[in-house]
Amino acid sequence: MDAKSEADASAKRLTRVDRTSDREMVVTRLFDAPARLVFKAWTTPELFMRWWAPKSLGVPLRSCQMDVRTGGSYRLEFGEDEAGSWAFFGKYLEVIPNARLVWTNEEDADGAVTTVTFEETDGKTLLTLHELYPSKAALEAMEGGMLPEQFEQLDALLATLAASTGRA
Amino acid sequence: MVQHAHTRVDAAFAALSDATRRGVLLQLARSDASITELAGRFRMTLTGMRKHVGVLEQAGLVTTRKVGRVRTCRLGSGRLEEAAAWIEGYRRLWEARFAGLDEIVEELKRKEQSDGREK
Fold first, then answer.
1. pTM assigned to the model
2. In whole angstroms, what is the distance from residue B49 CA to residue A116 CA?
3. Is this prediction's ipTM beyond 0.90?
Protein backbone atom coordinates (compact mmCIF):
# COMPACT_ATOMS: atom_id res chain seq x y z
CA MET A 1 0.00 0.00 0.00
CA ASP A 2 1.45 3.38 -0.89
CA ALA A 3 1.54 6.30 1.54
CA LYS A 4 -1.41 8.08 0.00
CA SER A 5 -3.83 5.18 0.00
CA GLU A 6 -2.70 4.30 3.49
CA ALA A 7 -3.54 7.82 4.61
CA ASP A 8 -6.94 7.55 2.90
CA ALA A 9 -7.65 4.26 4.62
CA SER A 10 -6.75 5.54 8.05
CA ALA A 11 -8.82 8.67 7.45
CA LYS A 12 -11.82 6.45 6.73
CA ARG A 13 -11.23 4.58 9.94
CA LEU A 14 -12.47 7.53 11.96
CA THR A 15 -15.21 6.88 14.44
CA ARG A 16 -18.23 8.91 13.48
CA VAL A 17 -21.15 9.70 15.78
CA ASP A 18 -24.52 10.97 14.56
CA ARG A 19 -27.74 11.60 16.34
CA THR A 20 -30.18 10.50 13.65
CA SER A 21 -33.41 11.27 15.53
CA ASP A 22 -34.71 12.20 18.98
CA ARG A 23 -34.29 8.61 20.11
CA GLU A 24 -31.39 7.32 18.03
CA MET A 25 -27.60 7.46 18.02
CA VAL A 26 -25.49 5.95 15.26
CA VAL A 27 -21.76 5.23 15.49
CA THR A 28 -19.84 4.04 12.41
CA ARG A 29 -16.28 2.87 11.84
CA LEU A 30 -14.46 1.05 9.06
CA PHE A 31 -12.23 -1.95 9.81
CA ASP A 32 -9.61 -3.24 7.41
CA ALA A 33 -10.60 -6.89 7.82
CA PRO A 34 -13.35 -9.28 6.77
CA ALA A 35 -16.64 -9.15 8.67
CA ARG A 36 -16.14 -12.62 10.20
CA LEU A 37 -13.05 -11.38 12.08
CA VAL A 38 -14.74 -8.25 13.40
CA PHE A 39 -17.72 -10.37 14.41
CA LYS A 40 -15.41 -12.86 16.11
CA ALA A 41 -13.68 -10.09 18.11
CA TRP A 42 -17.13 -8.84 19.14
CA THR A 43 -18.69 -12.16 20.15
CA THR A 44 -15.79 -14.06 21.78
CA PRO A 45 -15.76 -13.12 25.50
CA GLU A 46 -11.93 -13.23 25.92
CA LEU A 47 -11.50 -10.95 22.91
CA PHE A 48 -14.45 -8.70 23.76
CA MET A 49 -13.04 -8.14 27.25
CA ARG A 50 -9.86 -6.75 25.77
CA TRP A 51 -11.54 -3.82 24.04
CA TRP A 52 -14.97 -3.06 25.53
CA ALA A 53 -13.52 -1.27 28.57
CA PRO A 54 -10.68 0.92 27.24
CA LYS A 55 -8.30 2.36 29.84
CA SER A 56 -9.82 5.81 29.34
CA LEU A 57 -13.13 4.47 30.69
CA GLY A 58 -11.37 4.22 34.03
CA VAL A 59 -13.19 1.04 35.09
CA PRO A 60 -12.16 -2.48 34.21
CA LEU A 61 -14.50 -5.14 32.91
CA ARG A 62 -14.40 -7.90 35.55
CA SER A 63 -16.40 -10.54 33.78
CA CYS A 64 -18.25 -11.20 30.60
CA GLN A 65 -20.73 -13.93 29.81
CA MET A 66 -22.30 -14.12 26.37
CA ASP A 67 -24.64 -16.66 24.92
CA VAL A 68 -24.54 -15.28 21.42
CA ARG A 69 -27.65 -16.68 19.73
CA THR A 70 -31.15 -15.31 19.20
CA GLY A 71 -32.86 -15.37 22.60
CA GLY A 72 -29.55 -15.88 24.45
CA SER A 73 -28.48 -13.52 27.22
CA TYR A 74 -25.35 -11.66 28.22
CA ARG A 75 -24.01 -10.15 31.41
CA LEU A 76 -21.07 -7.77 31.82
CA GLU A 77 -19.68 -6.81 35.22
CA PHE A 78 -17.63 -3.68 35.67
CA GLY A 79 -15.61 -2.64 38.72
CA GLU A 80 -12.34 -3.02 40.59
CA ASP A 81 -13.65 -5.65 43.00
CA GLU A 82 -16.81 -7.55 43.80
CA ALA A 83 -18.07 -5.05 46.36
CA GLY A 84 -17.82 -2.14 43.96
CA SER A 85 -19.02 -3.89 40.84
CA TRP A 86 -22.13 -3.30 38.76
CA ALA A 87 -23.65 -5.21 35.90
CA PHE A 88 -24.99 -4.58 32.42
CA PHE A 89 -27.23 -7.29 31.04
CA GLY A 90 -29.82 -8.13 28.46
CA LYS A 91 -30.85 -10.49 25.69
CA TYR A 92 -29.90 -11.00 22.08
CA LEU A 93 -33.01 -10.33 20.01
CA GLU A 94 -31.31 -11.31 16.76
CA VAL A 95 -28.02 -12.91 15.85
CA ILE A 96 -26.95 -13.38 12.24
CA PRO A 97 -23.35 -14.62 12.29
CA ASN A 98 -20.86 -12.22 10.68
CA ALA A 99 -23.64 -9.78 9.78
CA ARG A 100 -25.91 -8.54 12.55
CA LEU A 101 -26.37 -8.44 16.33
CA VAL A 102 -29.34 -6.94 18.14
CA TRP A 103 -29.49 -6.82 21.92
CA THR A 104 -31.44 -5.21 24.75
CA ASN A 105 -29.94 -3.25 27.65
CA GLU A 106 -32.08 -4.27 30.59
CA GLU A 107 -30.13 -2.96 33.58
CA ASP A 108 -32.08 0.27 33.25
CA ALA A 109 -35.73 0.93 32.29
CA ASP A 110 -34.39 3.60 29.94
CA GLY A 111 -31.97 1.21 28.25
CA ALA A 112 -31.59 1.26 24.47
CA VAL A 113 -31.98 -1.54 21.97
CA THR A 114 -28.60 -1.80 20.26
CA THR A 115 -28.13 -3.06 16.69
CA VAL A 116 -24.70 -3.69 15.24
CA THR A 117 -24.28 -4.49 11.57
CA PHE A 118 -21.11 -5.71 9.87
CA GLU A 119 -21.06 -4.94 6.15
CA GLU A 120 -18.15 -6.31 4.19
CA THR A 121 -16.93 -4.76 0.94
CA ASP A 122 -13.60 -5.66 -0.70
CA GLY A 123 -12.33 -7.30 2.48
CA LYS A 124 -13.11 -4.26 4.64
CA THR A 125 -15.94 -4.07 7.12
CA LEU A 126 -18.15 -1.11 7.81
CA LEU A 127 -19.42 -1.43 11.35
CA THR A 128 -22.57 0.47 12.26
CA LEU A 129 -23.80 0.61 15.83
CA HIS A 130 -27.31 1.94 16.25
CA GLU A 131 -28.92 2.70 19.60
CA LEU A 132 -32.67 3.19 19.86
CA TYR A 133 -33.80 4.65 23.19
CA PRO A 134 -37.36 4.34 24.52
CA SER A 135 -37.75 8.13 24.56
CA LYS A 136 -35.98 11.39 23.76
CA ALA A 137 -35.46 11.98 27.50
CA ALA A 138 -33.83 8.55 27.90
CA LEU A 139 -31.31 9.30 25.17
CA GLU A 140 -30.59 12.74 26.53
CA ALA A 141 -30.12 11.41 30.03
CA MET A 142 -27.39 9.18 28.58
CA GLU A 143 -25.36 11.64 26.65
CA GLY A 144 -26.69 15.13 27.02
CA GLY A 145 -28.67 15.45 23.83
CA MET A 146 -26.21 17.45 21.79
CA LEU A 147 -25.92 17.10 18.06
CA PRO A 148 -22.40 16.61 16.72
CA GLU A 149 -22.64 19.67 14.47
CA GLN A 150 -23.63 21.73 17.50
CA PHE A 151 -20.72 20.26 19.32
CA GLU A 152 -18.34 21.15 16.50
CA GLN A 153 -19.57 24.71 16.59
CA LEU A 154 -19.09 24.80 20.33
CA ASP A 155 -15.71 23.11 20.10
CA ALA A 156 -14.45 25.69 17.62
CA LEU A 157 -15.61 28.47 19.87
CA LEU A 158 -14.02 26.92 22.94
CA ALA A 159 -10.73 26.46 21.10
CA THR A 160 -10.75 30.14 20.14
CA LEU A 161 -11.57 31.17 23.66
CA ALA A 162 -8.86 29.01 25.13
CA ALA A 163 -6.27 30.20 22.61
CA SER A 164 -7.04 33.86 23.16
CA THR A 165 -6.06 33.99 26.83
CA GLY A 166 -6.20 30.61 28.46
CA ARG A 167 -8.82 31.99 30.80
CA ALA A 168 -12.04 30.09 31.36
CA MET B 1 -31.36 17.18 37.56
CA VAL B 2 -30.72 15.87 34.11
CA GLN B 3 -33.66 17.89 32.84
CA HIS B 4 -32.24 20.99 34.47
CA ALA B 5 -28.80 20.41 32.96
CA HIS B 6 -30.41 19.82 29.59
CA THR B 7 -32.37 23.08 29.70
CA ARG B 8 -29.09 24.82 30.43
CA VAL B 9 -27.52 23.21 27.39
CA ASP B 10 -30.41 24.37 25.20
CA ALA B 11 -30.05 27.87 26.60
CA ALA B 12 -26.30 27.80 25.89
CA PHE B 13 -26.86 26.84 22.25
CA ALA B 14 -29.60 29.43 21.80
CA ALA B 15 -27.20 32.00 23.23
CA LEU B 16 -24.43 30.90 20.86
CA SER B 17 -26.64 31.13 17.77
CA ASP B 18 -26.08 34.88 17.57
CA ALA B 19 -22.89 36.37 16.08
CA THR B 20 -22.84 39.39 18.39
CA ARG B 21 -23.12 37.20 21.45
CA ARG B 22 -20.28 35.00 20.22
CA GLY B 23 -18.26 38.17 19.71
CA VAL B 24 -19.05 39.28 23.26
CA LEU B 25 -17.78 35.94 24.59
CA LEU B 26 -14.52 36.29 22.65
CA GLN B 27 -14.16 39.83 23.95
CA LEU B 28 -14.74 38.70 27.54
CA ALA B 29 -12.22 35.92 27.11
CA ARG B 30 -9.61 38.68 26.68
CA SER B 31 -10.79 40.85 29.54
CA ASP B 32 -13.79 41.70 31.64
CA ALA B 33 -15.80 44.62 30.32
CA SER B 34 -18.72 46.80 31.33
CA ILE B 35 -21.98 46.84 29.38
CA THR B 36 -21.11 50.37 28.24
CA GLU B 37 -17.73 49.24 26.87
CA LEU B 38 -19.29 46.29 25.10
CA ALA B 39 -22.05 48.44 23.62
CA GLY B 40 -19.38 50.84 22.33
CA ARG B 41 -17.24 48.09 20.86
CA PHE B 42 -20.16 46.47 19.06
CA ARG B 43 -21.71 49.82 18.06
CA MET B 44 -24.91 49.04 19.82
CA THR B 45 -27.32 50.77 22.18
CA LEU B 46 -26.98 50.07 25.88
CA THR B 47 -30.43 48.46 25.87
CA GLY B 48 -29.48 46.17 22.97
CA MET B 49 -26.26 45.08 24.69
CA ARG B 50 -28.07 44.58 28.00
CA LYS B 51 -30.40 42.14 26.24
CA HIS B 52 -27.53 40.15 24.71
CA VAL B 53 -25.69 39.99 28.03
CA GLY B 54 -28.96 38.93 29.68
CA VAL B 55 -29.25 35.96 27.30
CA LEU B 56 -25.62 34.95 27.92
CA GLU B 57 -26.13 35.30 31.66
CA GLN B 58 -29.28 33.18 31.59
CA ALA B 59 -27.35 30.46 29.76
CA GLY B 60 -24.65 30.53 32.42
CA LEU B 61 -22.02 31.67 29.92
CA VAL B 62 -21.45 35.08 31.49
CA THR B 63 -21.72 36.46 35.00
CA THR B 64 -22.24 40.14 35.79
CA ARG B 65 -21.59 42.19 38.88
CA LYS B 66 -22.73 45.71 39.56
CA VAL B 67 -20.38 48.07 41.34
CA GLY B 68 -21.82 51.54 41.73
CA ARG B 69 -23.35 52.39 38.38
CA VAL B 70 -21.12 50.08 36.37
CA ARG B 71 -22.15 46.50 35.52
CA THR B 72 -19.06 44.43 34.79
CA CYS B 73 -19.34 41.26 32.69
CA ARG B 74 -17.02 38.28 32.72
CA LEU B 75 -17.03 34.78 31.32
CA GLY B 76 -19.13 32.38 33.35
CA SER B 77 -17.97 29.17 34.98
CA GLY B 78 -16.95 26.10 33.06
CA ARG B 79 -20.53 25.04 32.34
CA LEU B 80 -19.98 25.25 28.61
CA GLU B 81 -17.03 22.89 28.74
CA GLU B 82 -19.02 20.57 30.95
CA ALA B 83 -21.89 20.45 28.49
CA ALA B 84 -19.55 19.93 25.56
CA ALA B 85 -17.77 17.15 27.40
CA TRP B 86 -20.97 15.13 27.41
CA ILE B 87 -21.29 14.07 23.79
CA GLU B 88 -17.55 14.27 23.30
CA GLY B 89 -17.27 11.68 26.04
CA TYR B 90 -19.64 9.40 24.12
CA ARG B 91 -17.63 9.79 20.91
CA ARG B 92 -14.31 9.27 22.69
CA LEU B 93 -15.56 6.12 24.36
CA TRP B 94 -16.50 4.57 21.01
CA GLU B 95 -13.31 5.82 19.42
CA ALA B 96 -11.24 4.20 22.17
CA ARG B 97 -13.25 0.98 22.04
CA PHE B 98 -12.96 0.73 18.28
CA ALA B 99 -9.22 1.42 18.39
CA GLY B 100 -8.95 -1.59 20.71
CA LEU B 101 -11.24 -3.68 18.52
CA ASP B 102 -9.13 -2.71 15.52
CA GLU B 103 -5.98 -4.03 17.21
CA ILE B 104 -7.62 -7.34 17.99
CA VAL B 105 -9.03 -7.67 14.49
CA GLU B 106 -5.55 -6.98 13.06
CA GLU B 107 -4.16 -9.63 15.37
CA LEU B 108 -6.77 -12.16 14.18
CA LYS B 109 -5.99 -11.25 10.57
CA ARG B 110 -2.24 -11.79 11.03
CA LYS B 111 -2.84 -15.06 12.83
CA GLU B 112 -5.09 -16.29 10.04
CA GLN B 113 -2.55 -15.31 7.41
CA SER B 114 0.30 -17.08 9.17
CA ASP B 115 -1.76 -20.22 9.92
CA GLY B 116 -3.16 -20.34 6.43
CA ARG B 117 -6.92 -20.09 6.29
CA GLU B 118 -8.45 -22.19 9.04
CA LYS B 119 -11.74 -22.88 7.34
1. 0.61
2. 50
3. no
